[in-house]
Amino acid sequence: MGAPAGRAAAEARVMARRLTSATSAPVLLHGEEDTAWSVLETAAEFGLDARIGIEDSLTLPNGAPAEGNAPLVTTARKILRRGRGRLTP
After folding, report:
1. Do strands 86-87 and 28-29 pair parallel, antiparallel, or not at all (unpaired)?
2. Close Cβ partners of 33 (under 8 Å, ≥ 6 residues apart)
3. What angle do CA 41, 26, 30 make, to 5 degrees?
4. Is residue 23 within 8 Å of residue 31, measured between CB atoms?
C-alpha cells in the first residue's frame, strides 16, 4: 500500500471510529483514485457501507485497468464479503 493509500486508510479508521461512536446513522466510506481500494478495505474491516465505480477508480486493486464498472463492483463485493461491509448503490 502506497503512502497516500496508507494515510487514507488510517484517516478512514479514525473517522469510522468517531462516527460510529457518535451516531447510529449509516456511515459510508469512500475513497478516490489511489485511495479507493484502501478505504474500501477499511469499510469492510469496520462493517460499513462503501461505494466504488469507474468515477472513483480506473484500476483494480492489482493496478490492472478496469474495463468498466462491473469488474470494480465484483472485486469490491469480494473484499466486502471478507469483512462485514456492504456495497451501497
Report:
1. unpaired
2. 56, 57
3. 35
4. no
* Chain mean pLDDT for the chain: 89
Neighbours of 60 (CB within 10 A): 16
6/1 Cα distance (integer angstroms): 6
Residue whose entry in the numeric block shows the C-alpha cell 456492504: 86
Q: Is 56 exposed, middle or buried (0-12, 13-18, 19+ CB in 10 A)?
A: buried
Q: What is the mean pLDDT of residues 31-46?
A: 91
- Phi-psi map region of 3: left, alpha, beta (phi>0 left; psi -120 to 50 alpha): alpha
| Residues sharing a CB contact under 8 Å with residue 48, sequence separation 6 or more, in sequence order | 16, 20, 26, 27, 28, 29, 42, 85, 86
Cell representation of residue 76: 469490491
pLDDT, tens digit (0-9, with 9 covering 90-100), for 1-19: 567 778 888 898 998 899 9
Q: What is the DSSP letter of 47?
A: T
